[in-house]
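Human: I would love a firmer grasp of how sequence relates to backbone shape in proteins. Take your time, and here it is.
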Amino acid sequence: MVDEAAFAALVAAIDGLDAAQRIRVFEALALAEAADRGAVAGERLLPAAAGDMPGESLMARIGRERLDSFGCPHCGLRNVHRWGSAGGKPRYRCKDCRKTFNPLTGTPLSGLHYPQRWREQAQAMLDGVTIQQAAKRCGIDYSTAFRWRHRFLAALNFDKPQHLSGIVEADETFILESFKGRRGMLGRAPRKRGGKASKRGMSSEQIPVLVARDRSGATIDAVLRGLDGASMQAALGHVIIRGADFCCDGGMGITAFARRARVKLHVLPAPGGPKPGAPQFQINNVNAYHSRLKEWMRRFHGVATNNLPNYLSWRRTIEALARTATPEAWIMGAAGLGPYQQASA
C-alpha cells in the first residue's frame, strides 16, 4: 500500500499520459484486481504443482492442466495470468497475444449450455446408456442429447497412447456398415435395429476395425480403409516401438506392416492361441477386447459408420479409466485431458 502523497502524485500524473500509457495502466489495475479476487476466493493463480489443489473447482483444474499441457489456446505460449471470472469459469489472459480465454476455449465443450447438467451427461457416458435414456437423465431434448454425446466424444478421438511396447497384440474385427440417421438414397432397403449383412463372411458391407494392445492395457484402434499394408502403417506406424514382440494372425497386410516396421513378428495359429513352448505370445487379449466392444455396442442397435470412430473412442476411454472412472474424469477427457493425455503429461 502506497502513502497518500505518492498516491496523489500518481493520480496527478494520469492527465499527462498518452493513450498507450493509459492502456498499460488499465491492464495493470485489472491484473491486480483479478489477483485480489483470487486471493479472496482462496484460489492460487495458475498453480504449477501436480495433482488437485485444495478447494480447487473442476473448471479451475481443467484450466490449470490445459495451460500446463498446451499453453494459451490462441498462440500456444505460456505467459498467462488470471483475468477474473465469468459464467462460473475462471478467465485468463495471454500477455503475448493479449487475448482472453476460459478453461474450455478451443475444446469441443466450448459454448455448450447447461454446465450444471454435465455431470449427469458424463455419468450417462460411463454407463453407456442410449440417447433417449441420457436425454431423460439430463432433462434435455433428444437432439440436444445426441449433440452432447458427440461433443463429449470429439476430443477423446485424439486421446490415444503415444507408444505400445513389450508384447503387442493386433487383430482386425469387422463392424457392419450403417447409414443410420440418413433418409433415402441408400441403394438398398433400410435395415431394422442394426440388422445383418446380406451375405455371410467378409464383404463390402463390413467395415474393418484394427485394435492393438500391449500387456499394460494401452489400446490403439482405427477404422481401416482396407486390409493392406499401407492402411496398417497409417494406423500403427507411429506407435509400435521397434523391438516390440508383435503378435498377429498372419494376415497379409498386417504382416507386411510388421516387416516394414522391423518388429519381432509372431504369427499365431488360428484361432490365435499360443504356440507350444511360447505361451506368452498370443492374441487372446485383443480378441477378448473385440468381444467386449461388440457386446457393448449391441445396445445401440447399429452405429452409423460416420460416427464409428467416436464409439471406438468411447469404449477405449471406459477401459482406460477403469477404476478411476468418474463424471469429473470424463468431463476432463471431453476437454482434451483424457486418461492417456494425463498419463503422458
DSSP finds twelve helices and eight strands in the chain.
